[in-house]
Amino acid sequence: MYRYVTRSGCKLCEEQERYLWALSVPYERVDVDAIPALTEAYGARVPVLLYGDEVVLEGRFTEADLARALGLEGGR
After folding, report:
1. Distance (Å, rounded) from C-alpha 76 to C-alpha 73?
2. Which Pfam families match (predicted)?
């Protein structure tokens, strides 16, 4: 399962989360500030999509970027 690392009040995080929904990506939303190790690793980089410990995407991305990163063709 993917983990979507966000921050409370992050408008970009909220906008891009819609792409996860649109592509039916199974994920868990995680607040970067709730876990010190995540804050240290990703605090300045949110939003970040992780698969295990691997960064799939971070910062600003489009639905098409997400689809490509996940091996899906084109997005919706």
Report:
1. 9
2. Glrx-like (PF05768)
Share of the chain above pLDDT 90, in %: 93
Domain that holds residue 11: 2-69
Contact 20, 4 (CB under 8 A): yes
**pLDDT one-digit tens code per residue, 65-75:** 999 999 997 54
Counting the structural domains of the chain, the total is 1
Q: Please report the beta strands in the chain, taking only residues with DSSP state E, as ranges in sequence order.
A: 2-6, 27-31, 48-51, 54-58
Q: Which residue has the higher pLDDT, 74 or 31?
A: 31
Residue 16's CB: how many other CB atoms inside 10 A?
22
